[in-house]
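Margin note from the TA: students keep mixing up input and output lines. Inputs are the sequences; the output is the structure of the whole complex. Example:
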Amino acid sequence: MQRYRVRADVYLLRRGAGLLVVYALLLVVAVIMAMPLLWMLSTSLKDLVQALRVPTPANWIPKPAFWDNFPTAWNAAPFAIYFWNSFFLAVTTTVGDVITSIPAAYVLAKMKFLGRGFLLGLLLGTLMIPGQMLLVPSFILINRLGWYNTYWALIIPWTAGVFGIFLLRQFFKTIPDELWDSARIDGCHRLRYIFQIAVPLVRPGIATVALFKFVGSWNAFLWVIIMTDKVGLRTVPVGLRFFMMDIGTDYPRLMAAATMAIVPVLILFVFAQRQFIQGIARTGIK
Amino acid sequence: MKLPTLRQGRRFWWDTLEAYVYLLPTLAVLGLFTFYPFVNAFIYSVYDIRTRTVAGPVVHTTMDSTTWVTPLARGRIPEELADALLKRGVARDGLWVRLRQADRWVIKDEASAQEYIIVREGEEIRVHLATTGWAMESVGWDNFARVFRDPDFAKALLNTTIYVAVSVPTTLLLALLLATLLNRAVRGKALFRLASFLPYITPIVAITMVWAWIYDRNYGLLNYFLGTVAGWFGAEFNLINWLNDPRWTKPALIIMSVWRFMGYQALILLAGMQGIDREYYEAARVDGAGPLAVWRKITVPMVTPQMFFLLIISLIGSFKIFEEVLILLQGPGPQKSALTVVYYVFTKAFDSGHYGLASAASVILFAVIFALSLFQLTVVQKRVHYER
């Protein structure tokens, strides 16, 4: 008995020491991961003189906090337009993507029909196509459609996506077939069944798809600079690039602008952490 | 496929019809904006495609070319041009230089979408009204031949390969270690999740701007940090010119990419590790296996499916690196040390207007990615351990 306790103590002690090392290492990594964003925040609250001081730990805290960078950055470029565009495009493409993905995912999860295997393969195959390869043909297509410099060019191509379909398909698969059988006996049309009965059951999946799509759209850059050249159509990232080209290395103001671009995503993440994590956990399982 | 009986058969065909109705929106969008451009990428690669800006009537002439060339070369509108166009009712704000060549510039007025072409002949400058259209001409394998002969493309391919070959395994290895640590930790996972997820979801343009500041030679955080660490060991540290020294641009891109994706990958691996059955560990402990052996023989093999998935997506993703280069270095970097394949495609198409050539380059990029993915799916996947 005595010996057992001693061994247990030693075990706990070693385990404790091990855990201490684990936590210390994790802390270091977490600090490194968070540092660029904290540094951004710190710089955005300094004036130019403070920003160019040696970044000793004491100089991380702006003294005094200089809030002017935010209004001056905001007014130095039409950021209101940029934010509106990003928001508008994120909402429209997200709604479009979710609406097209729901029936497609349901069909691929639950129905047996001719060409199902082929379609699944085809959709999976599109994940292997690097989007950058399509830039030139897409640019020519958009021009031929007469969509250059229009919202259409920024919305319609992004209203369908394979990621959402495959993720939702996994969720739909978990719904028992009996539910559809009984709904059908009650005379429910399939489309109504999908949207009124199946969709509420896979709400977490839809939230995840919508979140990833929203963030992806908010961050859209390359497609936008290729398909448009109007100030009025710039998204936040595109606007940021032009802002950077305009003001050069005025880092406090640049960091204020970067902070403004990141904050919406940050807020979204804080409120919807669970959906993000779920999306991640699901993508790993293939 | 097993043939359905007649009664089931009728239902099968109705279901097929219904299924395609539901799939129609998705297939229409993907068909038009993914499959069709995909096929076109190959077709366009054997064409010489250019937009041709055709000069129309002259609206302004001048002999004073020197005051025009300098601003135009920097993408700015010469004063005299702005004044001349203002007389035609064109506001200065909407004017910008769409195309810059040695003796030819195309100016566009955003409000009216009207283009003007400026031609320099010796001392004389003429401003024409202009219209732009597409011109296509079959050239066979010429584009490919030109791409392969272009030293810039070779450089782009090499740079991209170096970037991928270093950043992908480094990120994955660090993510694996990180996931192992996280798997050990009992508390604080939520906080860590936040810290590791943020780099992944923040807009790449914004975050790259932050890194440009971190990499600043004189005032940047990284040089200060390295200098401090070197100081602890009494070593001498010369400030690294991350963004202007051709030796350091690729490491700068790699460090940033490791930072961005390490946490995300660790979270995926962690999800895999938490799915491992406790029994394996207990069995190993009974057999007297040490922690390192347990990690090597159980933990790592059991997350190979996740590692394989990450390897594929990060390889494809890394080959597409572009925005980072554009924002961090504002160009291909000193001595084109950070010229990547997508950057090459982008400039060839959208700066120089050689769309066919750019298509050929992107087809080559696709071939490389495709071959690598195929290699992984056939050879590497055999070493992946799938349960059941």
